[in-house]
C-alpha cells in the first residue's frame, strides 16, 4: 500500500522505483573509478556529453531481451540481487530453521516462490476463497465493505485508505484516502488521444478478456466483461487527478470529518469503510482527491452490481497474476511488454526476489548489511553527506537573489535536516508475519496484509522517526519532506557509483551528486513548501518566492522542449522537481569537491583534469539505454527526466562545465538563458 507520503517519495527519490536488471552484469572492477572504456571519444563533450561519457557503455551493453532499460543503476541492482540470491537460497535449503525465525521466513518464502510445480498445479485455487467472496455480493450497499477487505490484502480498488503525516502538523499521523483502482499505469492512458494510446487500450481490453478466459469464462462472456471493466476504469480515470496536479501538496490536502466525507460521497459508507480496514476509531481523514470520490459515488449509483463484481474480480486477479500459475504469469507479462517493450520475462529467481524484497526486505537488509556494508563505508559516506550540507549552507549564505529573512529560514531548515546513511538504527519486526512453504501467492498476500496493518497502525500514534521507506539493499535514495530527512541506503554505495578509495573527483561527481540531489529536494518546487519541521508552511518572503517560481518555470519550460521516441515531449511540469534536484545536487557536489583540502593536490588522470573527471563521473551515473515503449510510458508516468537530459540538460546550465571542457558558444551544451536556482 502506498501512502500519500510514500507517493511523494516516489517523486523525490533519485531513480524510478521497481527497476530490476537482466541476468548479465558488467564487470565494475576499477582501481580509480574512471571507466574510460565507457567513453565515446568520437563525440565532442561540447556537443553531446551524455554520449561522450556513455557511448562506449551503450555499444558494449545492449538492452537484454528481458529488460526495458539497461544501465549503471540497473546493473548495480543485479549485483545486489545475485548477492542476496546466494543468501536466500542457502536459507531455503535449511529446512530445520527455528519456526518463526527470520531464517525460516526468508528461506520458506523463496522456496515457495521457486516451487513451480506446486504453483502450476494449484492454478487459481489459492485465490478461490476471495473470488467466492466477491461472487456472493448481493447488493450495491455491500461494496464498500468489500473495498475495505480487498485493501487489507493489497488490492486498492477503487480507492486506498492509508496513513500520512499531517501536512499542517508533522508530529501527527493521520488517515488519508486517495484515488486508485486503475489497471493501466496512469489515468492518462485512458484519456489520451492518438494512435499509440488507442493501441494500448485495445491491447489492455484483450488482455482483460484473456484473464477472464483463464478463470474459466467463455470467450464471448470474457469479451463483454473486459469491456465493462474498461468502461468503469475509464470513468474512474476521468475523475482522477493528473500526476502533475498531484505534485502540489496543497491540492491533495483536504482534511475532513467523516460526517463531511459522507456528505461528499455517501454511498461509500465511510464509517463502515473504516471499520472494514480495522480502524473504526477513525473520525477524520485527509481526502486527497475529492472529485475522484464523487466519481466513485456516482458509479455506485449508475454501474450495475454485476459490473462492479466483474471489476473487483479483475482487480484481484491482476494484482496477484505474477504469483499464480504459468498461464497467468505469461498473460501478465504479455500486457506489461506492450508498455515496456521487453522481449522475454526475467529469470524466475529475480521475480521471486523482488517479491521477497517487499515482503521481508528489512530482514534481508540486515543480512545484507552484516555481510556487505562495512562500517568504514558508512563513516566515509557520512562525511561526504556532511560536507555537501556545508556546501549548501555556504550556497544559501551567498545567494544574491535571496533576502535575509528567507535565507535564515532556509538555513534553519537545512540545519534541521536529518541525514541518514546506510541502514536504519532499528530493524523492522516481522514476528507477526506468517510465512510457510505453502502456496506462494498466499505468502505474498499475507505480506500485503502485514504491511497494510503496519502502515495503518501508525494512525493516531507519535511519528516513528526511525522508520525507513527503502530497504538498505535498494540502489536508490530519497528525501522525505514531512520528515525533513535525507536517506542514502547502503545499496547505492558501491562501484561503479562509489568506492571510498577512489579519487574525490569521481566520488563527488557520482555519489556526491546523488547526495546533493536528495538534499536539494528539500528546496525544490515541492520541498520548498515545507519548513524544517516538515510542515506545509510558507517560509518565503513574497519577493523571493516570486523569483523562485520564475526560476522553476525556467526549468519546466526547458525540459518541455525535450523529446523521446517518436517525438513525444517530456512533461516539463511533471519532471520539474527532479530536474531542480539534479541541477542543484551537481552544483553542491562540485562546490563540496572544491572545498576539500585534497582538491589542490588532485591529479590529472589519463589526460582528464579533476573537474573533467568529476563531470565524467556524473555522466557515467546516468549511463542508460531505454526501449522506445518504455521511454514513452515514462514521460507519461515518471517524474524523472530521461537520462540523456538528466545529463545534458543539467550541464547546459552550468558555466563550470563549460569552463572545464573549454566549450565554446554557440553549443548544444550551453543554454543561452541559463536556469539558475541553487
What labels describe this entry?
single chain; 27 helices; mainly alpha; Neutral endopeptidase, domain 2; 678 residues; Collagenase (Catalytic Domain)
Task: Map the helices and strands.
Blueprint: H1 4-12, H2 49-60, E1 69-71, H3 72-93, H4 102-114, H5 116-122, H6 128-135, H7 143-152, E2 159-165, E3 173-179, H8 188-191, H9 195-214, H10 219-238, H11 243-246, E4 255-257, H12 258-264, H13 270-276, E5 284-287, H14 290-302, H15 305-320, H16 326-340, H17 348-372, H18 375-398, H19 404-416, E6 418-422, H20 440-456, E7 478-480, E8 485-489, H21 504-521, H22 542-560, H23 572-594, H24 610-621, E9 624-626, H25 628-637, H26 643-651, H27 655-660
CATH topology of the domain at 30-62 and 373-424 and 468-660: Collagenase (Catalytic Domain)
Quick one: overall form? globular
Distance between the termini: 34 Å
Structural class determined from secondary elements: mainly alpha
CATH homologous superfamily (4th level) name of the domain at 30-62 and 373-424 and 468-660: Collagenase (Catalytic Domain)
Look at the structure and give the CATH class of the domain at 30-62 and 373-424 and 468-660: Alpha Beta
- Rg (CA only): 25 Å
Poorly predicted regions:
5-11, 18-22
Strand content: 5-15%
Mean pLDDT, all residues? 95
Major sheet strand order = 2-3-5-4
Strand count, sense and closure of the main sheet? Answer: 4 strands, mixed
Your description of this structure?
The chain is mainly alpha-helical and 678 residues long. Among the domains are: 278 residues, 3-Layer(aba) Sandwich (Collagenase (Catalytic Domain)); 183 residues, Neutral endopeptidase, domain 2 (Orthogonal Bundle). The protein is 54% helix and 6% strand. The chain has 27 helices and 9 strands. A 4-stranded mixed sheet has the order 2-3-5-4, with helices on both faces. Strands 6-8-7 form a 3-stranded mixed sheet. It has a two-stranded antiparallel sheet with strand order 1-9.
Amino acid at each position: 500500500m502506498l501512502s500519500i507520503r510514500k507517493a511523494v517519495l516516489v517523486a523525490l527519490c533519485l531513480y524510478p522505483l521497481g527497476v530490476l536488471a537482466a541476468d548479465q552484469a558488467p564487470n565494475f572492477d576499477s582501481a580509480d573509478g574512471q571507466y574510460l572504456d565507457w567513453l565515446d571519444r568520437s563525440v565532442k563533450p561540447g556537443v553531446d556529453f551524455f554520449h561522450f561519457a556513455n557511448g562506449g557503455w551503450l555499444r558494449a551493453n545492449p538492452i537484454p531481451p528481458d529488460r526495458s532499460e539497461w544501465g549503471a543503476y540497473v546493473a548495480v541492482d543485479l549485483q545486489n540481487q545475485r548477492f542476496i540470491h546466494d543468501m536466500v537460497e542457502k536459507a531455503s535449503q535449511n529446512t530445520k530453521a527455528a519456526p518463526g525465525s527470520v531464517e525460516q521466513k526468508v528461506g520458506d518464502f523463496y522456496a515457495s516462490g521457486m516451487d513451480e510445480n506446486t504453483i502450476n498445479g494449484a492454478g487459481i485455487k489459492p485465490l478461490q476463497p476471495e473470488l467466492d467472496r466477491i461472487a456472493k455480493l448481493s447488493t450495491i450497499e455491500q461494496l464498500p465493505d468489500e473495498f475495505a477487505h480487498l485493501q487489507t490484502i493489497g488490492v486498492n480498488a477503487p480507492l486506498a485508505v492509508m496513513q500520512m503525516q499531517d501536512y499542517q502538523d508533522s508530529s501527527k499521523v493521520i488517515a488519508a484516502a486517495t484515488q486508485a483502482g486503475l489497471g493501466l499505469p496512469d489515468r492518462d492512458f485512458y484519456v489520451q488521444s492518438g494512435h499509440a494510446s488507442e493501441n494500448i487500450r485495445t491491447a489492455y481490453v484483450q488482455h482483460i478478456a484473456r484473464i477472464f478466459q483463464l478463470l474459466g469464462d467463455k470467450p464471448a462472456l470474457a469479451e463483454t466483461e473486459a469491456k465493462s471493466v474498461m468502461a468503469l476504469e475509464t470513468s474512474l480515470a476521468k475523475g482522477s487527478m493528473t500526476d502533475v496536479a498531484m505534485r502540489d501538496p496543497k491540492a491533495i490536502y483536504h482534511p475532513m470529518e467523516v460526517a463531511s466525507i459522507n456528505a461528499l460521497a455517501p454511498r461509500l459508507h465511510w464509517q463502515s469503510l473504516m471499520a472494514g480496514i480495522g480502524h473504526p476509531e477513525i473520525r477524520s481523514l485527509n481526502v486527497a482527491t475529492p472529485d475522484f470520490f464523487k466519481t466513485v459515488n456516482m458509479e455506485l449509483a449508475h454501474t450495475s452490481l454485476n459490473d462492479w463484481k466483474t471489476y473487483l474480480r479483475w482487480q484481484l486477479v491482476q494484482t496477484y497474476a505474477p504469483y499464480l500459475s504459468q498461464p497467468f504469469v505469461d498473460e501478465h507479462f504479455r500486457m506489461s511488454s506492450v508498455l515496456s517493450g521487453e522481449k522475454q520475462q526475467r529469470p524466475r529467481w529475480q521475480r521471486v526476489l523482488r517479491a521477497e524484497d517487499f515482503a521481508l526486505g528489512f530482514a534481508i537488509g540486515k543480512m545484507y548489511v552484516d555481510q556487505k556494508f562495512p562500517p568504514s563505508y558508512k563513516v566515509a559516506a557520512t562525511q561526504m553527506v556532511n560536507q555537501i550540507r556545508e556546501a549548501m549552507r555556504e550556497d544559501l549564505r551567498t545567494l544574491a537573489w535571496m533576502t535575509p529573512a528567507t535565507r535564515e529560514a532556509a538555513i534553519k531548515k537545512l540545519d534541521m535536516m536529518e541525514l541518514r546513511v546506510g541502514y536504519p538504527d532499528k530493524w523492522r519486526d516481522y514476528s507477526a508475519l506468517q510465512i510457510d512453504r505453502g502456496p506462494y501467492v498466499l505468502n505474498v498476500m499475507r505480506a500485503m496484509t502485514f504491511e497494510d496493518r503496519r502502515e495503518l497502525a501508525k494512525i493516531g500514534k507519535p511519528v516513528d522517526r526511525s522508520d525507513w521507506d527503502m530497504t538498505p539493499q535498494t540502489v536508490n535514495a530519497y528525501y522525505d519532506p514531512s520528515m525533513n530527512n535525507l536517506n542514502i541506503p547502503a545499496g547505492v554505495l558501491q562501484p561503479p557509483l562509489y568506492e571510498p578509495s577512489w579519487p574525490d573527483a569521481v566520488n563527488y561527481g557520482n555519489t556526491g551528486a546523488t547526495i546533493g540531489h536528495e538534499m536539494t529536494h528539500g528546496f525544490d518546487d515541492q520541498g520548498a513548501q515545507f519548513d524544517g519541521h516538515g510542515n506545509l508552511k510558507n517560509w518565503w518572503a513574497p519577493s523571493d518566492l516570486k523569483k523562485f517560481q520564475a526560476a522553476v518555470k525556467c526549468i519546466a519550460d526547458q525540459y518541455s522542449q525535450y523529446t523521446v521516441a517518436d517525438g513525444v515531449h517530456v512533461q516539463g511540469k511533471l519532471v520539474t522537481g527532479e530536474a531542480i534536484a539534479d541541477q542543484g545536487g551537481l552544483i553542491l557536489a562540485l562546490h563540496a569537491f572544491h572545498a576539500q583540502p585534497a582538491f589542490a593536490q588532485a591529479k590529472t588522470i589519463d589526460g582528464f583534469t579533476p573537474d573533467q573527471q568529476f563531470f565524467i563521473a556524473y555522466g557515467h551515473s546516468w549511463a542508460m539505454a531505454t526501449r522506445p515503449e518504455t521511454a514513452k510510458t515514462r514521460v507519461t508516468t515518471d517524474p524523472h527526466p530521461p537520462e540523456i537530459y538528466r545529463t545534458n540538460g543539467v550541464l547546459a546550465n552550468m558555466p563550470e562545465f563549460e569552463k572545464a571542457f573549454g566549450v565554446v558558444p554557440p553549443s548544444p551544451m550551453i543554454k543561452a538563458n541559463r536556469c539558475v536556482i541553487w
